Amino acid sequence: MPDDTLFSEVLDPRNRADPYPIYKKLREVPVSRQRDGAYVVSTHAAIRALLFDPRLSSEDLPPSRRPRTGNPLRDWILNPIKNRIATSHRPLIFRDPPDHDTLREFVMKEFTIHRVNGLHGRVGSLVDDLIERCRGRDEVCLVEDLSYPLPVAVICDLLGVPEKDEPQFQKWATQLATALEPDARHDEASRHATVAAFDEISSYMRKLIRRKRRHPADDMLSGLAKPGREGNPSMGDIDLISTAILLLVAGHETTVNLITNGMLTLLRHPDELKKLKADPERAPRLIEELLRYEPPVHFRTRKALGDIKIEGTTIPKGAPVILLFAAGGRDPARFSNPNRFFPDREDNQHFGFGGGLHYCVGAPLARIEAEVALVALCRRLVEPELMADPPPYRSGASLRGPESLGIRISGINR
Ligand code: HEM
Q1: Tens digit of each residue's pLDDT (9 = 90 or more) over 319-355
Q2: Are 201 and 172 in contact (CB under 8 A)?
Q3: Which one of 90, 138, 180, 289 is least enclosed by Cβ atoms within 10 Å?
Q4: How far is the CA of 159 from the centre of ligand 1 (A)?
Q5: What are the sequence ranges of the domains in the chain?
Q6: What span, in angstroms and rounded, lies between the C-alpha atoms of 240 and 378?
Q7: Distance in Å, CA 336 to ligand 1 centroid
């Protein structure tokens, strides 16, 4: 029987560089109750079963585990972002059917394959430009130089946010991503900064939506803001704002992590780097293997709407349930040699983009960004070498990725 505090070890930043041995211990009991009453689900089969189970809710999120002070106003300030999200601005990732499905349908109508494929060329030129800016240097910080700026620029392009506002968007995205961690371990000043970022981006979006209604362009926000026709209503303003913010937050740090984890993994497996350089067609399968082996999203939380019996355990109604996707990806009962990075793997059914009704809407876009970036990095960086292994990690346990990734190079190919 594993220890009922193992999940707190997952949250501990000291284990960020290698959480996989803890996941192995957790898998000994597929659904394990933690001392705080949360249930951690860690095998591939159990995660899969629960991802498709309507008795798990994304809407009625469990209360924060931050100790309450007894002063309601102070408690609200201690966990402001969650409260705001839970009331007026709750985006579709935190909603259940039928509201979730209605909102998702609006997004899917605009997030077409045609629109996403149309971004391919733009992603390519952004990547080339970002790599070119490193010319003349013998060190590259992958996060700062490429992984971080790329996804924001792409989301701004997709939504139709003017290029001049991108730096501001980058700041908002960084601040808001901290609110996605279950137990944000940052100080009060940072929590206030999150509220401020949320208010600022909301008011910016409100104005931008108004402009898009007056002067529609061929972008996603103009499409979403289009007035509805009879029998075909449009999205309300609040939902529109929260959807735009969600696309920014959900599509930013995740993509940063995929590109950074990808390059880190390739530098740790130089043979795979060489093979990708020689044959860029290997990229799609390599990206799928990355999403299994080093996924950007390690877990997501749900709440049980009723008693759920699974793998010999009953999750009681109201309990928080943590779906530990990254542990499922290393489950030896599902994948042979799960701790081996093996891009030629067949039947690679990972949870990198989740599954079921909340399956990532940005998956095709994220795949394009990661493919273009990794192929270009392998081709253009001459003799790349990791400067520190493991690199320093950001503190987040759910959206897990290196804070920086120093790479020594001896030049840049054209
Ligand atoms: C490598 C990059 C990405 C990864 C690993 C990733 C991962 C995920 C995962 C695991 C979920 C499921 C959440 C859950 O079950 O609660 C999700 C949902 C979502 N993702 Fe992504 N994502 C990525 C990129 C993007 C991009 C680029 C966008 C948009 C521009 C995006 C937008 C969304 C949205 C809107 C949802 C919520 C869908 C729903 O609730 O129906 N993601 N993503």
Answers
A1: 999 999 999 999 999 999 999 999 999 999 999 999 9
A2: yes
A3: 138
A4: 16
A5: 6-408
A6: 39
A7: 27
